[in-house]
Amino acid sequence: MSECISIRNFNVAFGNTSVLKDVNLDIPCRQITVIMGPSGCGKTTLLRSINRFLELSDHVRIRGEIIIDGHNIYDPAVDPIDIRSKIGLLAQRPYSLPMSIFDNVAYGLRIHGMADGKDLHKAVRHYLEMAGLWEEVKDRLREPAVRLSIGQQQRLCLARGLAVEPEVILADEPTSALDPISAQNIEQRLLDLREKYTIVVVTHTVRQARRLADFLAFMYLGEMVESGEAAAIFSNPHHPLTRAYLQGAIG
Amino acid sequence: MNPKRGTRRRLAQFEEAFWLTLMRLALLSVVIVLGWILATLLLKGLPAINWELISQPPQGGYYLGGKGGILNALLGSIYLAGGGTLLGLIFSLPVVFYLATYLHHRSRQAALIRLMLDVLWGIPSIVYGVFGFLIMLSLGLRASLLAGIITLALLELPILIRGMDEFIRTTPEELVQSSLAVGATPLETTLKVVSRQTLPGLITAVLLAFGRGIGDAASVLFTAGYTDHIPTSLFEPAASLPLAVFFQLGTPFPAVQQRAYASALVLTIIILFISLLGRWLVSHFNKFLLR
Q: How far apart are CA B169 and CA A90, in angstroms?
């Protein structure tokens, strides 16, 4: 297994509350890694430390390393802006930018000067197709993005994230605000994208983890309990806590 | 139902009816007062409004009931408030963006700045007038359009900054993060996303500030002065509508006093027009916004 992201002895505290305790995890390339665990286990915190979003919160203390492409992203010389353009984030609820559908996807492309004119239109179409939204919006690209349904907006957010050509896609319970059909649609997108991207999905539902995971990590109360090939953990969990969670006894 | 609950329920119904009546009375009194002011302006001012009044500066003997109009004050007020708002914006936008973008998490500094601005907001405009007068003297200026604009900009600054700041603070944190997540810098996020999302609020703050500026008499009294001429440069004195109202109302001639009401009506119509323009702009941008 070749790992793309190595999390090493990672500790996070908000004020005096310790949220992540000595977390270690190797996330494999071009697979879907699911971080699973009950509410408050620190899975979202771990996810947000990979694109350096943690430091947006007040009073946060971070210790440890996250190594991507051989570099520690918490090295003081690293600019978080560079990290965030390499690592896309799909949030729990879609937040469309206050502009048109087209401009939402073009936003990152314009900011990074990646395309203009005709190329821009081509690129926007390409990423909307990747997100499975093109057919639904091709005739209304100039309409405000907020007019789309919430499921469509989540796919728009996916297209917006893909457009800046990230290597990694982080998804924080990306279907929890969606209806079952939209949720299934997003899951299918993620499955389609795993050949090209390293994908990390946070979820608290075992069923979603079963549907998506190639690689699985189980967290409990801020600690990494167990991680490994998803199939192996599902069929034979080593740790009693993992077993209990999979059986629905805890969480 | 047990009798105790029945009593409690009747009491709650009475309470609700009582407070509802009180609220309606309060609303009614506000409407009556506003209507009264408008009716007074219309009754006393409308007969004196004609094309001559708004198209000509005062001629000889105007304040004794002679010919002419208030074009000097009309244009003067628009120049003063327009210039003051523009100058105020040039200084307030960077402050607002700084507060929104970089001071977000250092709340103690931000709180101090906001407190200072709130105090500035409450300072009476005559104090700004005197302060503007001192600045004017130290710059070697006379009472002029420029001095008036500088003073009005000072008067409007706290309204502009605090007004825009309050609206910007309503931006959902997740929206900011959506922009940061694709690698936008905090400044790009503020300029391209947050300011768009809060544009209606920003426009509202600008209109509030403009309204305060155009309606203020005390701050321009010493600094812009008063003249019957229409200013042709920044260094000439400029008249203003509030002072036009004041001077005309102070004459013993009923015809001139009637023109004072007409001038006040013109001022009110300008503010009404600006408000409608603002509403239209806000509704135009609203459809893109997150709710």
A: 24
**What band does A1 get if pLDDT is binned at 50, 70 and 90?**
low
Spell out where chain B has E strands.
none
Residues of B with CB below 8 A from A157's CB?
Answer: 178
Say how many C-beta atoms besides its own lie within 10 A of residue A120's C-beta. 17
Query: What is the ipTM score, two decimals?
Result: 0.92
Given this model, what pLDDT does residue B283 score? 85
Query: From the CB of residue B271, how many other CB atoms can be counted at a distance below 10 Å?
Result: 16
Question: Band of the pLDDT at B1, cuts 50, 70, 90?
Answer: low
The reply to whether B4 touches chain A by the CB within 8 Å rule is no
Residues of chain B positioned with their CB less than 8 A from the CB of A52: none
Asked if B46 contacts B56 with a C-beta cutoff of 8 angstroms, the reply is: no
What residues pair up with B200 in beta bridges, in sequence order? Answer: none
CA distance B70 to A108: 53
- DSSP-assigned letters across all residues of A161-203: HHTT--SEEEEESTTTTS-HHHHHHHHHHHHHHTTTSEEEEEE
Question: Is there a contact between B187 and B66 (Cβ–Cβ < 8 Å)?
Answer: no
For residue A122, count other CB atoms closer than 10 A to its CB.
Answer: 11
Q: Are B109 and B181 in contact (CB under 8 A)?
A: no
A239 touches chain B (CB under 8 A): no
The torsion region of residue A28 among left (phi > 0), alpha (psi -120 to 50) and beta comes to beta
Question: Rounded to the nearest 5°, which phi and psi values hold at A204?
Answer: -110, 0
Contact A127, A162 (CB under 8 A): yes
Q: A61 at the B interface (CB within 8 A)?
A: no
User: The pTM is what?
Assistant: 0.84
Burial bucket for residue B64 (CB in 10 Å: 0-12, 13-18, 19+): exposed
Beta-carbon separation of A107 and B179 below 8 A = yes
